[in-house]
Known about the structure:
The protein is α+β, with helices and mostly antiparallel strands. It contains two helices and 13 strands, in the order H-E-E-E-E-E-E-E-E-E-E-E-E-H-E. The strands form two sheets. Strands 3, 4, 5, 6, 7, 8, 10 and 11 form an eight-stranded antiparallel sheet that branches. A five-stranded mixed sheet has the order 9-12-1-2-13. A hairpin with a 6-residue loop joins strand 3 and strand 4 (67-74).
Amino acid sequence: MKNKKLVHLTIILVICFVIAITFLAGIPLQQTIVFEPNHSNQKLAFIPIKDEKQFKIKYTHSIHLSDVIESYHITPRQLIRQVELEYEDFSIGMPSNAEEGETFEQKSGKYYIRNMKRIFPYFYLRIGQVRANHRVIYKNTEYPLSHSIKPGTSVKVEIRRLTLLEQWKGVNILESL
């Protein structure tokens, strides 16, 4: 009789444990910068966000062959705010001045547009196949996106909370070096 009760209690505890784990795995807890492939079956790549609320995208411009750095802040509402653009060449595809409320500066051979307040819920980025060598800079460390995402892939970049299951299925960019 006692063994039968113990077996039933064990089964109930195991079922409760499985239900709890399943429930917890489905709750979006971890705030992340997500790079989700469009029109592809590739895994999403992500950066878990802790205290640092800023990141940069760095790439080599296809025509000028010089680096461009776009700086972003994450807003309290999980939006992306572009705050700065740094580049070396004025010609094709690069701005020649700042928008209203922004500042334009030339310093040490580079051009800066600062005080940008361009806010996006997300933006799209195509990971370069030839020259662009897209990198994300987080906590002063560069992570080549081609280590986590196949070159040529178009990705949607957004801030969102991921479940444990989504994190497990995806690729943590910070662990891809």
